[in-house]
Amino acid sequence: DTGVSQDPRHKITKRGQNVTFRCDPISEHNRLYWYRQTLGQGPEFLTYFQNEAQLEKSRLLSDRFSAERPKGSFSTLEIQRTEQGDSAMYLCASSTGGGTGGNEQFFGPGTRLTVL
Amino acid sequence: KNEVEQSPQNLTAQEGEFITINCSYSVGISALHWLQQHPGGGIVSLFMLSSGKKKHGRLIATINIQEKHSSLHITASHPRDSAVYICAVRSKGGSQGNLIFGKGTKLSVKP
Hints:
The complex is a heterodimer.
Chain A: E1 5-7, E2 10-13, E3 19-24, E4 31-37, E5 44-50, E6 53-57, E7 65-68, E8 75-79, E9 88-95, E10 106-107, E11 111-115
Parallel strand pairs in A: 2-11
Antiparallel strand pairs in A: 1-3, 3-8, 4-5, 4-9, 5-6, 7-8, 9-10, 9-11
Chain B: E1 4-7, E2 10-14, E3 19-25, E4 29-37, E5 43-49, E6 52-56, E7 59-64, E8 69-74, E9 83-91, E10 99-101, E11 105-110
Parallel strand pairs in B: 2-11
Antiparallel strand pairs in B: 1-3, 3-8, 4-5, 4-9, 6-7, 7-8, 9-10, 9-11
């Protein structure tokens, strides 16, 4: 499988618990992006990495959220002390780097989080 | 007002009809993306364009940079085209990573 994969696909948790999601990008892609999508809305940017460096974080990414890409390959997104408002689809995408216009992003299937 | 606006929000068509989905944006951009999202969440990139027109199969995307407007056309629509179509832009001078998304247009094609 050469696409972007995400794990788990679904996660149900109780308020206050910590959750961690994983994203495996396309192997030759050096850029990796995290987005959040709530019901009926378009995705919203959370953060992105070029290799292992986290180059930008959205103001949506509160201090309860942390993302890592330690070896420049897979990435994890952790949410601490989850709240019901964190319920959403968390999407990961990857792309090659370079070019002022950016490059086509390839999306994973998403992780749907439900906080009870 | 959102920086990326799509119209219509919902669209129902009969199989075979020609479909147009519109996207208007208010920022200078370096690229515009059209994406397709099926129930269950998976997103597929359809087009990335910065000028002119692109065609892939029954899909055509056009962009007018001066008017800050793009359209996605589907010819000879089919029930399998039923999905949410999302327009996203990368603002000129903005972060390389930060796409700004519209809310999507939900298309339903009836047999």
